[in-house]
Amino acid sequence: MLESGIQTLKGIGPQKASLIKKEAGIGSVGDLLYYLPRRYLDRSSFKKIKDCFENEIATISGTIIESAVTGYKKKHLDVIIDDGSDSLTAVFFGGLNYFKKIFNPGDQIILAGKISFFGKKQMVHPDFDFLDESSSIQSINTGRIVPLYRSTEKLRAAGFDSRGFRRIIRSAIDLYLNDMSEIHDSSIISKNGLPGIRDAISALHFPESFSQASDARDRLVYDEIFFILFLFLFIKKKSRETTSKITVHTDLSKFDAFISSLPFQLTPDQALSIEEIKKDILSGYPMNRLLQGDVGSGKTAVSIAASLIAAGTGRQTALMAPTEILASQHYSTFNKFLSGIGMHIDLLTGGTSRSDRKTIYESLASGKTDIIIGTHALLQPELKFNKLGLIVIDEQHRFGVEQRSELRKKGVDADLLVMTATPIPRSLSLTLYGDLDISQIKTRPSNRIPVKTLAFPSSRRRGVYNSIENYISQGRQIYYVLPIIDDSEKTELKSVMSEYENLKNNIFRHRRVELLHGRMKQQEKDVTMKKFASGEIDMLVSTTVIEVGVDVPNASVIIIEHSDRFGLSQLHQLRGRVGRGIHQSFCILLYQDNISEDSLKRINIIKETDDGFEISEQDLVMRGSGELIGSKQHGYDELFEFTDLSKDSEMIMKARSDAIAAVNSDNPGRYIDIIKKTRYRRILDLLYRENIQTIIS
Ligand code: ADP
Ligand code: MG
After folding, report:
1. C or N: which end of the chain has fewer Cβ atoms within 10 Å?
2. Which residues contact 314 (CB under 8 A, 6 or more apart)?
């Protein structure tokens, strides 16, 4: 049985079993079979040591000739390897006792790493693996392609380096592979060009070719995405069948008044999004909608409209934003647009005084408050609604899945609208937001003049200062952004503090220059932001705290120092702070004169396109999905064990269409049974911890 503990394998007693469980998370034989190699070595492409040159990344194999602790104060272990063509020294620092034990003259070893030259050829802390093995398992270690596994010092000390893992995985495959049953119909597997599960597991560990290994991994990705999306979609369907909002009567007069009072014409995408939201809110089922729109595309107006529709059904709206600045800005925008319409709006943040908080709680619980806007403070348990109808989450990527559901618990079948200005590639959004319907605002309001983006090396900053002076004298305002707050010894980056001094007391001493950064007190930040918004400040020297959502139309120039230090999406967000008014706006990127090619490439992407989607695609390729969606903070890492969201979009799309078909098939419950019984149970646990019973019953 796949659920058997790994101590059922030869050579693993209870002690080793618990060590492996603790260090590698492998408890059962099934876990072991799914233990993904971290990479493969191609034995046929080993390099001869004599052919290796400096700075090259190479894989070599040879025999250990000598292993000795040497150097000043005996600081490192030198392991000399000979492959018949030449010799090379592998150098290890730290943990010398441990390393001394494992490298023994005569051992056959593989080394992979960067070649350096220090009197003779060497590799410092290379990846290593041993090849010699006694006869019976010779074959598993001498195939052309050799899998390497993640290991730890403790595991290696107990014999579980890659070699040890290969041995126990081989025996697990021999004994248990036949216990694995195929989950999918054979037609589906062959349609997608995938191997069957047994072939996949076997090829994952002992492939005959790299393409076989890659197909095997594809199969695991397919299964993972299939079950995640199946669950998302199944639960969505089920909630349609089991919940309903009872609406006594609907009065959309305030909504209509808002639409006709708007000082501008809605863009077609805004209008369509509002229609989609209206239909959802007025339907009998809870809305689950993502509103995606680039910076400045006008999502706020859509969320105001949504709150008026909710109010029209007699329900309250909660809008949650990631920062206090943003929450207060929404508060004043809502008030501005709704002043003539008569809505009771409250603001609740961490900075709200105790007595104000009490009043706000009471007003909310009594139903007097129509809309409450705030930060995480809205999640406090004391906060109770009279009738929560709509939850709006702004800059959704700043929140975790859990916070979403926490707010949701404050109402019964409340509608949910999550908004994001971080456009993400379709494959990603379909996976991460698989449980949401999507509305998109693709075009910005037509009165916008596109921002001109320019990039200069630091040596040309004089000229940049001159044009800044020029714009200030025309009455414009400036954002001046730097990557770090304080000077630190570790970097040569200019900091906000030092540059602020320089700009305020020196270069722009005749102008009103002020400071904004994340370590300031909330109240100070708010005061400064308000002054900037009302035109009392010419130049705001800031960290990226202004990144999200801030709206000051008269600010038409943003300077970004060390622009090569920012990610693409971040640069795009920052640029979105300007270009909001009637004046031509500029985004000026300064970079070090000795900038790397990679950084220059990113700066060029920003210069060439203003399309957030295109930028996010590029960002995904350059940085991987983890960075883009902040997956580490939000627990997505656990969710995707095999999938790399930045590389697996083809498999994602295939798995998605099959998951849709499965949900709509005659017997979707069949897949729930599979999920319950297999390793995919972990997805259920991760996503739906609280209401598992209702789902699987
Ligand atoms: P974001 O989508 O980044 O949240 P905002 O909602 O802050 O964008 O909108 C940016 C600016 O555009 C605001 O000043 C808003 O009043 C204005 N705006 C929104 N919709 C339109 C429109 N259809 N026409 C003109 N200006 C608009
Ligand atoms: Mg916004």
Report:
1. C
2. 247, 248, 249, 387, 389
Shortest-distance Cα residue to atom 20 of ligand 1: 298
571 alpha carbon – ligand 2 mean position (Å): 16
Mean pLDDT of all residues in 491-518: 86
Which of 551, 582, 585, 610 has most ligand 1 atoms within 8 Å of CB, for mutation? 551
Of the chain, the percentage scoring pLDDT greater than 90 comes to 46
pLDDT band at 492, cuts 50/70/90?
low
For residue 625, the CA-to-ligand 2 centroid distance in Å is 23
Tens of pLDDT, residue by residue over 112-157, are 888 998 888 999 988 887 765 543 334 444 557 888 898 888 898 8
Please write the tens of the pLDDT for every residue from 190-220.
Answer: 999 999 999 999 999 999 888 999 999 999 9
Phi, psi (degrees; rounded to nearest 5) at 540: -105, 115
State which residues have CB under 5 angstroms from ligand 2, the bound ion: 549
Give 388-398 pLDDT, tens digit per residue: 999 999 976 66
Give, using CA atoms, the residue closest to atom 16 of ligand 1: 298
Nearest Cα to Cα of residue 261 among 295, 299, 305: 305
pLDDT at 645 over 80: no
* Cβ atoms of 438 and 289 closer than 8 Å: yes
170 near 176, Cβ under 8 Å? no
Instruction: Residue 289: name the closest of 103, 143, 436 by CA.
Output: 436
Q: Which residue has the higher pLDDT, 361 or 129?
A: 361
pLDDT band at 697 (very low <50, low <70, confident <90, very high): low
Least confident residue range of 44-58, 598-612, 677-691: 677-691
End-to-end CA distance of the chain: 25
Residue nearest atom 23 in ligand 1 by C-alpha distance: 266
> Which atom of ligand 1 is found nearest the CA of 441?
2
Contact by Cβ (8 Å): 343, 312:
no
- 294-348 per-position pLDDT tens digit: 878 899 999 999 999 999 999 999 999 988 888 988 999 999 999 989 999 999 9
Which residues have C-beta atoms less than 6 Å from ligand 1? 264-267, 270, 293, 295-301, 421, 445, 447, 549, 551, 580
Domains annotated for the chain, with CATH where assigned, are 45-143 (2.40.50.140), 253-441 (3.40.50.300), 452-609 (3.40.50.300)
Which of 297, 393, 447 is the best mutation target for the ligand 1 pocket, counting ligand atoms within 8 Å of the beta carbon and taking the most?
A: 297
Q: Which residue has its alpha carbon closest to ligand 1 atom 12? A: 298
Residues 6+ apart with CB under 8 A from 164: 151, 155, 156, 158
pTM of the model: 0.69
Residue nearest to atom 18 of ligand 1 (CA): 298
- In degrees rounded to 5, what are phi and psi of residue 452? -90, 130
Beta pairing partners, 319: 373, 392
Q: In ligand 1, which atom is closest to the CA atom of 553? A: 14
Segment 455-465 shows an average pLDDT of 93
Residue nearest to atom 19 of ligand 1 (CA): 298
CA distances from 42 to 34, 89, 147, 448, 550 (A): 21, 21, 9, 55, 52
Chain-centroid distance, C-alpha 289 = 20
CB 296 within 8 A of CB 580: yes
Distance 630 CA to ligand 1 centre (A): 26
Q: Average pLDDT over the chain, rounded to whole? A: 86
Residue with CA at minimum distance from ligand 1 atom 5: 298
